[in-house]
Amino acid sequence: MFRKILLGFFVLLTVLVVVLVINAYRTSSRQIEVKAIPSVDIPANAFEHLSKAITLRTISYSRTASVDTNAFKGLHRYFKSTFPLVHSQLKREVINELSLLYTWKGTDSRLKPVLLTAHLDVVPIEKGTEQNWTHPPFSGNINGGYIWGRGALDDKMNALGMLEAVEYLLKKGYTPKRTILLAFGHDEEVSGYRGAQKIADHLAKRNTKLEYVLDEGLFILEGQMPGVAAPVAYVGVAEKGYANVKISVASPGGHSSRPTTQTAVGILSQAIVNLEKEQFDASIEGATKEMMDYLAPEMSTPYKLAFANRWLFNPVIKKIMLGKSTTSAVLRTTTAPTILKGSPKSNVLPANPSAIINLRLKPGETKATILRHFKDAIGDDRVKVEIQADEFNLPVPMSDLRSKSFKNLQKTIRQLFPESVVAPALMVGGTDSKYYRDLSKNIFRFTPLLLPVKDIDGLHGTNERVSKKGYQQLIRFYVQLIKNSD
Ligand SMILES: [Zn+2]
Q1: Peptide bond just before 380 cis, omega within 30 deg
Q2: pLDDT at position 25, please?
Q3: How many whole angstroms separate alpha carbon 17 and alpha carbon 25?
Q4: How many CB atoms lie within 10 A of CB 87?
């Protein structure tokens, strides 16, 4: 009897292994095979152009801080003098004083325009870190094969790179069939309300519909994804939303010498603890599921077995991903308590203590699902829950991966970075591109740069820099993308 059970067990195990292996090797690559393209000569003064643009301090401090309009206008003037063909042959509109919209009219008006977008503002240098920079942050120093400074990666590189590409094509006498729009917002780092949103409103008033939108986003990264040897070009095809939820407890307040056993602060604290314990549901779906489907065929054996057999391994993969804050963020709506308000005086019970919980919303989340989760997780009617109207952004759903636009982008990436593999992904941070959601179903957030892991810290941090080689390739990418979009 025992031998029979054992035999049965081994037969089952063998079948399972065979199924896993067949599944793993049946998944065919989703990468597009492309032919190599001749390399384009990028003028060497492109480096100086980016360098000079970095020296203009177009800083966004906060949504309410005053803006150095002269710095932005100086950058506008610098564009004019540096890209003469762009400024003589494209229509240029100044939107809300400091943002720019260029229109390069195509010959075929039946084709929907393409919008390439980047932002002109940069984040400030954190006080006390100025001395840690190898080259001063606004020097635009060109040294050791790099262009250094704030904005080198985020996001002057993309704005200047697009302008270089168009100037180059104009010099070659190229005229696009499809209209190309270049949109440069001036306040992306503090929400984009004054820049990108106004540009989008302007286009909507004209009833413009876009073929696709390409904005800054995820990079090409090497050695980040376990089991994938090739650099992975992550394309943000969906974007998380943003919300602040205020939770508060009404109380009569009073003198702290006569507190009740349970104070309003105690109730509020318990609510926060409950929210941390009861997280939003986590699941592998949407852009994250697509990412795994695209990467599984490119993985080495043990990983391929797991990722191609997610019907079996999903719980394990999920558990590993939930263990790290960077990977758990792509599985769920995250909750982060950020602001706490109590009493202004140590001997006064607060009348209305409150907390702000900052949420990054997974695609599919709505105001109703947020409120339901908060009510359920907190489980206490004394806690008032309000979604703040200010800064609320719904998540942007996934773009169509079967669209010509995505295939076109995928093809261009493979032409310029033939060693890389392309994978869709969920964009966890916010970008200006969300404002164009009503103008196009195809929104992509991708920065065409192979970013070495050691340079990632430069983003919003110290020693932001871009390699000269990387920047040249980025310009070539935009040249090719414009051609491929015709
Ligand atoms: Zn940026």
Answers
A1: no
A2: 76
A3: 12
A4: 15
Residue 373, domain member (yes or no): yes
Indicate which residue of 155, 164, 188, 215 is catalytic.
188
Confidence of residue 317 (pLDDT cuts 50, 70, 90): very high
Options 121, 211, 215, 464, the catalytic residue: 121
Query: Which amino acid type is present at position 425?
Result: A
**Residue ranges making up the domain that contains 248:** 239-387
> In total, how many domains does the chain have?
2
Q: Is residue 478 part of a domain?
A: yes
Going from the Cα of 21 to the center of ligand 1, the distance in angstroms, rounded, reads 42
Q: For the chain, what percent of residues have pLDDT higher than 90?
A: 85
Boundary of a domain, candidates 387, 421, 455: 387
Closest C-alpha to 60, from 73, 74, 71, 46: 71
CA of 216 relative to ligand 1 center, distance in Å: 6
Is 397:187 a contact under the CB 8 Å cutoff?
A: no
- 5 CA to middle of ligand 1, Å? 61
Note whether residue 29 is domain-resident: no
Which residues line ion ligand 1, judged by CB < 5 Å?
154-155, 216
- Position 15 in a domain: no
The CA 431 to ligand 1 mean position distance, Å, reads 7
Output the CA 427–ligand 1 centroid distance in Å: 12
- Mean pLDDT (whole number) for 339-359: 95
What's the whole-number mean pLDDT along residues 293-312?
Answer: 93
Measured CA distances, 369 to 32, 150, 384, 387 (Å): 38, 39, 16, 11
Model pLDDT for residues 427-469, shown as the tens digit of each residue: 999 999 999 999 999 999 999 999 988 888 888 999 999 999 9
Q: Strands 212-221 and 232-239: what pairing?
A: antiparallel
DSSP state of 458: G
Structure confidence by residue, pLDDT tens digits, 203-262: 999 999 999 999 999 999 998 898 999 999 999 999 999 999 999 999 988 888 988 889
Whole-number pLDDT of residue 26: 77
Give residue 160 CA to ligand 1 midpoint distance, Å. Answer: 13
Please say if 121 is a catalytic residue.
Answer: yes
CA of 153 to the centre of ligand 1 (A): 8
Q: What is the pTM of this model?
A: 0.93
CATH of the domain at 73: 3.40.630.10
| Same structural domain, 247 and 141 | no
The C-alpha atoms of residue 427 and residue 290 are separated, in whole angstroms, by 13
CA–centroid distance, 56 to ligand 1, in Å, is 16
